[in-house]
Every structure is written in C-alpha cells, then in structure tokens.
Amino acid sequence: MDRECTIRLFDRETKQERLIEEENTITSFSLSEDGDFLLVNLTTEAIHLWNIRNCPIRVNRYAGHKRSRFVIRSCFGGSEQAFIASGSEDSQIYIWHRGTGDLIETLPGHTGTVNCVSWNPANPHMLASASDDHTVRIWGLKKANLKRKDVGSSNGIYANGSSIPSKGMVHQCNGNSSK
User: Fold this and answer.
1) Cβ(43)–Cβ(24) under 8 Å?
2) What is the 3-state composition of the chain as percent helix, strand, coil, each rounded to the nearest 5?
3) Tens-digit pLDDT profile for residues 5-54
4) What 3-state class would DSSP assign to 146?
5) Of 30, 55, 68, 129, which has the most beta carbons under 10 Å away?
6) Residue from 26, 21, 30 nearest 75 by CA
7) Strand residue runs (E) in the chain
8) Which residues contact 59 (CB under 8 A, 6 or more apart)?
C-alpha cells in the first residue's frame, strides 16, 4: 500500500477504518458538506468523486484541467453542491456537473496557475479563485445555467467580480479602485 495513493477514513463512533486507494498520487482532497462524498485530486490531471457513506466507491471522474507541477485544489459548490470546480495550470477555472461529469464551463481571467477555488456557502452563485498571478477573483455565476456573466475587461478590472492584486489595490466590478 502506497501512502501517497491512500486515504484512511476513520469512523470515531464505530472505531472502524476504511481505505480509499487510488492508482496515482493524491495531491489534495475535499469533503462534501454532508460528509458523504470525497473529492480527490490526483497527479494525473484527474479528479475522482468517492461516495464514502458506507464502503468507499468511486462514483465519478472529472478531467480537462491542467496539472503538472503544482497542487491544484477543487471543491464542491453551487446549489445543493451540484457542481465541481477546480483551478488549473492553464490559468482557467473548470466547472463540471457533479452527477454527469460533463464539463459545463471554463472561466478565463487569471494570468497564472489557479491553485485554489472556493464556492461561497451562503451564495451558490458566487465562486472565488486564487492564482499565482497574485490575485483573488470573485465570480458571479448566472442562476439558471451556471454560465458566467460577461467577462469584459478594461485595465484589469473585470465586469463579473473583483480582482485583488498583490500591491493592495482593489479593483471592483463597478470600475472604482480603492486601497
């Protein structure tokens, strides 16, 4: 058993241990809000969804994002956590339908590797992304089809959210800048 390819699940109540064994190295993982599913990022540019409620079983696979050198984190999100979002080394955010595994959207806007994404738990139509371009972007997603709003840009100011560069300047979606 390779430690880099295995996740140990321990039930504190029953004192039972269960294993998730992947064929490739695990780089990160995320637990669903209800605790029944685990999202596992691998070195092979794949993300696996595991149902861990009883005996762990892989139920879906998501692919398309780029990962070769850095740790990329993904997350559950959207209404009823029906979507999977992930960063990527090609400077984009990828969003898949959790149930079907279909790639729904790619969000351009960063100029460096997107290492981490996080869905707003209070607003299922808002997603944040953090990148090696030294920005955090806030994305407003349309309610009906989860498509992004217009991503027109002007001097680094993005119409669908805020860009927070490393030099302390905040560019807001209304076009105003502040320190």
Assistant:
1) yes
2) 5, 45, 50
3) 888 888 888 888 888 888 877 888 899 999 999 999 888 888 999 999 88
4) coil
5) 129
6) 30
7) 6-11, 16-21, 26-31, 37-42, 46-51, 57-63, 74-77, 83-86, 93-97, 103-107, 114-119, 126-131, 136-140, 153-154, 157-158, 170-171, 177-178
8) 37, 49, 50, 51
What is the residue whose two structure tokens read 């997107």?
114
User: Structure tokens of 51?
Assistant: 């149902």
What is the per-residue burial (b if ≥16 Cβ within 10 Å, else e) of 62-87?
beebbbeebebbbbbbbeebebbbbb
Q: Helix, strand or coil for residue 125?
A: coil
Give 3-178's CATH code, choosing from 3.90.1150.10, 2.130.10.10, 2.40.128.630, 3.40.109.10: 2.130.10.10
Beta bridge partners of 128: 118, 138
- Residue 170 CA: distances (Å) to CA of 139, 141, 175: 15, 20, 10
If you average pLDDT over residues 122-133, what whole number do you get? 92
The half-sphere exposure of 107 on its side-chain side, counting CA atoms within 13 A, is 31
Residue with tokens 């140990």: 8
pTM of the model: 0.74
C-alpha span between 163 and 110 (Å, rounded)? 9
Question: Quick check: 62 pLDDT over 80?
Answer: yes
pLDDT in tens, 147-158: 433 333 333 323
Helix (H, G, I), strand (E, B) or coil at 171: strand
